[in-house]
Design a protein that fits this description.
Elements: H1 18-31, E1 38-42, H2 50-54, E2 59-64, H3 67-76, E3 81-84, E4 98-104, H4 113-123, E5 124-135, H5 153-161, E6 166-174, H6 176-193, H7 200-203, H8 206-227, H9 229-234, E7 240-243, E8 251-257
Length: 258
Amino acid sequence: MSKYAATEITSAEIPSDNPVHQRLYFPYMEAAKIIYGNVLELGCGWGRGVETLIQKCDHYTGLDKNQPLIEQLQEAYPKHTFSSANLPHLSAFKDNTFDYVVTFQVIEHIQDDHKFLSEIVRVLKPKGRVLLTTVNRPYSLSRNPWHIREYDTQELRSLMQKYFSKVETMGVGGNKKVWDYYEENKQSVNKIMRFDVLDLQHRLPAWMLRGPYEFLNRFNRNKLMAETGTLAASIEVTDFYVSYEPEKCIDFFFVATK
């Protein structure tokens, strides 16, 4: 499962993916500090944080649109529940079912983000909480054709405040190693994007860009691994922390209460 190689999903075993993988794994470590009871994950992917979450809850339910990955996860964790789903619809679940909903790097892929959040509220128990991450748009280095939209801090805060009684706005912060890698990545992406003189990344429909994006993203990560191998390999989950300045972070980490 962890060998899944698409750059949008990010493997735990491909060396050039390491900086992104560690950043994406960090929220699971934070979630494990607070979750309990009945937990739903929306967009569990290949199971990056499933083991971490399962250890801290009574029952875990994981949803994802990728049926083969769901089948593998169900086989690996037979005491818990995995199902394929077409988010944002959660009609399989009754109101007030879950103590926590975890959804990391998913809302940017959802066409109807209002429906997504309203369904999360519906299935949460009273005072239940959602833990949500997504990319901070000002720190995106190019258009990601897999994303429907991206948010800045105020946009995401305002959206979530429409549905939750309390919204804690935080971000995934990083130390010097993390930001050194980000700057190297930024410079490398900018060199590639110089060839897009017609700004096709913003003019072409998303489906036309996904193939080139995957190719160039993998090329860029491998290039950075070759040029900054020690730095890329040295980044660990402990190089990240919860920041209370989300506008200065690559990713948001929001915790909202029903």
